[in-house]
Amino acid sequence: MRPSRFNDGTTLIVPAVLLLALVFVVPLIWFFVRTLAGIGTFPEILSHVWSVVTSKAVITAMRTTNWISLIVTLLVLLISYPVAYYLANNRGWRFTLVLFCIIVPYFTSIIVRTYSWMVLLGRNGLVNQVLMQLGLIHQPLTMLYTEVGVLIGMVYVLLPYMVLTLFAAMKAIDPSLMRAAQGLGAGPLYAFARVYFPLSIHGVVSGSLIVFILSIGFFITPALMGGPSDVMIAMLIERSVEITFDFSSAAIMSLLLLFVTLVLYSIYYRLTDVRRMMGA
Amino acid sequence: MGAYVPRRVLSICIVAVCAVLMMPIVIVLILAFGDQSYMRFPPSAYSLRWFALFFGDPRWQHALWVSLLIATVACVIATVFGFFAAYAFVRSDMRGKKLMLSFMLLPIIIPNVITAIAMYFMAAPLKLVGNVFWIGLCHATIALPIVLLILLSSLQGVDVNLERAALSLGSSRIGVFTRVIVPLAFPGILSAAMFAFLASFDELVISLFLAGVRSETLPVRIWNSLHLQIEPVIAAVSAFLIALTGLVLLLDALARFVRVTRLSRRTA
């Protein structure tokens, strides 16, 4: 007997959909419609959009955002790959210990993690102290309130997303394939490059996408650790509301950022099983 | 073996990465017990004065209670609604499931600055800025995706035949939920609820816009302090937040353990 449509549980999705519609979707649409309509007639809206999108501040912020997000994604990938490989190929206490070191920062409040790096990277911070004691530098380096600080902070916050995504992809790789390649005469590095890496490329792509998506919308870490010239688009949006109360410019920049985010997310959606997002 | 050298190099890299990952957490914990008013490491003496300040200052206490209240509201709503939605995803054969799920995950994909400003824009004319219940509701949208992701995998482990059996033996629909599904999925529900609570408790950007002056949460107070002058009490507050995270992770590990032993007992 086929259960009726009402009884198979589909209706149970309604409360969650209503919650998202009322508290999430409606405010977003209301915000965009109201602020844009408040500008004036249609040609006036267009010219305002044009002036915001082509303004020096927005172009610079977009360039900074892209640049920082790209570097962050590459760095995160570079560091995460060996960690995920290690996780996928080890068991027992080694596995548990490394996973612990990924999971604890992952679930620690972003503001706490950012604060800690502010203390570490300050002029008299631990990093400078250690470098000076090792004799590597003679003057304390300025890292906080520079691009370097932003990069360190963002890489730190986003690393777990990449590790967990890569780990899930690598877990699915049959280890006997590597043994087969080596048994047929391939060196370990050759076997890695021709067998293991191509099989993990799926994780590399979806991990990079999710990190890049989260990077371009990043706000807390760059706002606290960046200097005056490291303004990312999310900070510019916040400032135009907080400082100049210019909601219409904020809305236009938000639409721009939202558009890019949704395009990237739709690519991610096609490539990945969304149920595995965030390494769940 | 040729693989020996790369393996050695890999191990050293892993140790280094893990050390760097844990360093900020450990440093904050040590600083919180330091006895000086400037951030010097290592501290020259240790004391509990920053914890005393945190738990003694009425403004920090107020922030703590506001955070707890908001997180409780968000946790209850996100867990209940998320549980029902996850059940619908697992059991129903509706079309467009994947699209629906990716829609429900949007709150953690869309930059939270945009969401926060839009929520503020709507809440301000309705006089909802600073309303603890409303902030909890807004946080629930951020917590919902987390609950969904956890419960989807948890509910997949509940055998649909057990539900059919209960139904055929005369149980009502509600009875199936309260007597079969919820008990079987309970460890997962508990994990989901705790991470939902944590997501709200640590949330900053939405709170920043919606808190107003009367409902500042702990993260908002930390943010304000980091913007002006870094007070040493921040280390103690941070240590408190880290301890809460540690507690949630510990309980989650326990819940997973229960789930695994239960499964093995069932198959045995």
3D structure, described in words:
The complex is a heterodimer of chains A (about 280) and B (about 270). Chain A is built from 12 helices and no strands. Chain A has 2 domains: about 10-50, no CATH class; about 55-280, Orthogonal Bundle (MetI-like fold). Helix content of chain A is about 75%, strand content about 0%. The longest helix of chain A has about 35 residues, at about 55-90. Mean pLDDT of chain A is about 90; it is low at about 1-5. Chain A has helices at about 15-35, 40-55, 55-90, 90-105, 110-120, 125-135, 145-170, 175-185, 190-215, 220-225, 235-240, 245-270. Chain B is an all-alpha fold and about 270 residues long. Helix content of chain B is about 75%, strand content about 0%. The two termini of chain B are about 40 Å apart. The chains are: A mainly alpha (about 280), B mainly alpha (about 270). The interface between A and B is large, with 83 and 91 residues.
Topology, number of strands of chain A: 0
- The count of strands of chain B amounts to 0
> DSSP helix count of chain B?
11
Shape of chain A: globular
What layout of secondary structure does this protein have?
The complex is a heterodimer of chains A (280) and B (268).
Chain A: H1 14-37, H2 42-53, H3 56-88, H4 92-107, H5 110-121, H6 126-133, H7 147-171, H8 175-183, H9 188-216, H10 220-225, H11 233-242, H12 247-271
Helix pairs in contact in A: 1-12, 2-12, 3-4, 3-7, 3-9, 4-7, 5-7, 7-9, 8-9, 9-12, 11-12
Chain B: H1 4-32, H2 49-56, H3 58-91, H4 97-104, H5 112-123, H6 132-156, H7 160-168, H8 173-202, H9 205-210, H10 218-227, H11 233-267
Helix pairs in contact in B: 1-11, 2-11, 3-6, 3-8, 6-8, 7-8, 8-11
